[in-house]
Amino acid sequence: MTKKKHGSLSYHLVGLGGSGMSALAQLLKARGHTVSGSDRSLDRGQNKTLFEGLSRLGINCLPQNGSGLENGIDIAVVSSAIEETNPDIRMARAKAIPIVNRAALLAVLFNQVRGVGIAGTNGKTTVTGMVGWILDRAGLDPTVVAGGMMKNYSDSTVLGNTRLGRSDIMTIEADESDGSIVYYKPHVGVVMNVTKDHKPINELCRLFSIFAENSSKLVLGADCPMACKMGTSSKETATFGLEKGADFRVTDTVFKEWSSTFRVRDVHFELNLPGRHNVLNALAAVATCHHLSVPLGVAAEALRDYRGIRRRLDLVGEVRDVKVIDDFAHNPQKIRATIETVRPISSRILVIYQPHGFTPTRFLKEELVQTFSEILSGNDMLFMPEIFYAGGTTKKDISSRDIVEALISKRARAEFIPERPEIIERVLLEARPGDVVLVMGARDDTLTDFCHNIIDSLADVKAKAPPARHD
């Protein structure tokens, strides 16, 4: 690992389009390194906004054919999703270029400072954004690395999944999906919850326990029996939850269509995000910032202006009194929370759920079937395209059709429709005033474009409708 002039290195990120990888690329670039990267979606002409934004920052976006590693690269960075047969990996091996894991590299940067690591199977992206925004508004100037685009930091020139601060505080989303969470040694470690996702519960508990042990201070979700067991008497620990007994809990909660109000220790909070789960997310952020001596009043003032994460209950548009909402929900708990939040603003929900990855779908199949059969009302409808395939080597031995057939056997109104144009046709036939079209799924950024296509199609139908008669 030879340093170049002034200590800079040349990094090539394989899988640059991923939320974690693109955030790391920006962080490395801001620290004076030369950064390039490749991605399958770039080769397919997808996610152009992201790659254009990275290019504007001076990050060289290249084809994923090995050419990016031919000359002058010191380190190749990969995520766990990149297989050994990838052309860039083959080139790195051939040229003896060191290959490091994304999370391991981020951990090197994180462990050198006062790190705040947000962990848990649900809500960590939103809480990372909330903590970063509160610390920013408190004048602590943090660096923030999130797994989604933070709306408070997104504009025409900034992507928004990073905030580059000048202090020694770094807030990150600590991912458990590939086991890399054990690399982090936080000043403040947060374990929000533990539910089945990516790995069996016992394996998740082991990973979160190591993360907690590596943390100097802890914040634990008191409402989750497994999360609240992560603490030890030797560590300064704050708990949060909606039930009695937590160090930080809410009272006087009022849920509105697109916002909530509540009190924490007699301080009034206003949150411009809907749903019970977002109140809990805010409570986690408040408890975390308390460990960094941020007063409750400052946290409340900051959260009043917090705008959320892109693709988390995003209202894309409304036509003919039909709302179209874009959401990242992909595991059973997230799906349940999203549908429960949307329920009060809809007369009926037309759900479009795209599973991501064959292995995760196979792992969660029974839980997905159970969740949808329980949460969908008799009037709701579920449309499922085929499982999103990002590329690489995998066993394609499960289909969305399998989930739909299981749901039909439970008398749910579900349809397997592989292609998006046919799904739009079904939505146009079914949608009526008061309905919500809820598009859910992870990893596939074209789902947002799909939402806009639905809006455009609804608008076209409205424009072509004959004028009302006034006899």
How would you sum up this structure, described in words?
The protein is globular and about 60 Å long. Helix 8 crosses helix 9 (296-303) and helix 10 (332-342) runs parallel beside helix 11. The chain has helices spanning 19-30, 40-43, 48-56, 87-94, 102-110, 124-137, 201-214, 276-290, 296-303, 332-342, 358-375, 400-409, 420-430, 446-464, and strands at 10-14, 34-38, 60-62, 75-78, 99-101, 114-119, 143-145, 162-163, 169-173, 188-191, 217-221, 236-240, 251-255, 260-264, 267-271, 314-319, 322-327, 348-353, 381-384, 414-416, 435-440. It has a 7-stranded mixed β-sheet with strand order 8-7-9-6-10-11-12, with helices on both faces. The longest helix is centred in the last third of the chain and has 19 residues, at 446-464. The protein is α/β, with parallel strands linked by helices and 471 residues long. Strand 14 (260-264) and strand 15 form a beta hairpin. 48% of the residues are buried.
